[in-house]
Amino acid sequence: MKLISRLSILFLLLSPFAASANFDFNANCVKAYQNIFELKLATAKQLIASEKKARPNNSIIPLLENYVDYFYLLTTESKAEFEKLESNKASRLDQISRDDKNSPYYLYAQAEINLQWALIRSRYGAYFAASREINRANGLLKDNQKKFPNFHLNDKGLGLINVVIGALPDGFMKSALSTFGVKGDVQTGLAQLDRLAENLPKSTYEPFYEEVIFYYAYLLSDVAKSPQAYAKTMKYTARIADSSLLKSYMQAYVCARNGKSEQAIEILESRPKGNAYQPFAYLDYLLGVARLNKLDLGAASNFSQFLQRNQGVNYIKDTYLHMAWISLLKEDTAGFNNYITQVKSKGNTYAEKDKQALNEANSPKPQMVLLKARLLYDGGYLNKALDVLNATKADDFTSNKDRTEYAYRLARVNDDLGKDDVALVQYQNAINLGKGLKYYYAAKSAVLAGNIYERKKNFAKAKACFRLAIDMKGHEYENSIENEAKQALKRIDG
User: pTM higher than 0.85 for the full model?
Assistant: First the structure.
């Protein structure tokens, strides 16, 4: 980003919404906001405290304080801290609600606070309360859009809500939001955020660019599972300052999620460090995942560091599962069994990764060839993964589960290498072998085969595959795979 001082001057001189005295996003507030998005939370708190002393009635203060709590909770993953801090929400909303109703920040700030608490709350399974907050935020933003159609920041929250709600699998939260009348559309939401990503740097709203990209990158990679997630994230984060730890997180996360392990490792190892930054133990976990995906058994040190530094409740089971795999790759059976016991006894199952880790801990021990292929594939080492798989054959596996996974792994690697015909044969093998099993391989194979047919514009076969995925029940990831198939059918039908 450009220098803060220049941003502040531009913002004050040109902003169409800085005139309202008690919603004063002045130079000091811009600087605090910037520090929040570099994850320099202690510095941001000092700036907010000085603002509160100088202008105690500035209703931008409670909004900034909420940002600090939000990123503190995201980086610590601490449920205890969440329970301690959530009472701040009411007093902040109260201060804002007594302020200038003619400011575009009046409804916007209330919506932001509701939305931030909803996003945190949903991480701990409090779906009904989160649904109420999303409903409230959605209504406030839509009202604000009617009152202030040129206030571009409305699209940030509305875009986020559209994507998240549009992609929700069937379940309690979707039902609750439907009861409230809140509906979403993934493509509409992505388009809203894409417009902001393109246009904010050319506008007086430039200081909010990094926040937009933070949400957009997450939604592209995690929620929409867009094939453009990597390219767009790297493009839009390029102009953010390298002093931002949040930039390192966004880039490393999207690299790790999209088979760019070498790049993820490089980013994480060169990330900004020091006492100025909020501790972020998850980055140690992420580095461990990226290193293990290249079969670097030294990743154990990163997982150990995560467990030592972590204050939160998420990714503990998944970390122990990765440490179990390291033991297995070392042919250390006692170590493997010990870590599998830890998966079962430690941590929680709020996060999908931890739920799956527990499932895997209760399943038969992974077959070595399949584990290596899985890790190498996830890391983007496609040819190495193919070499591992080609060194064996389906008949070498004794269980139906392993034969199904073998076909699935072969299909995934060939799919990503552009060998569509080979991939389709292996996806079909995985479907035939695994459609009655509790594992996800068959259902996911149906979705991925459908994606190939969709690319080939064979829409009849694509739809048949997506419907087959929906019809399969009682397997891992059932809701998310079914939702992926439903989104694909919606995409084809326009």
Answer: yes
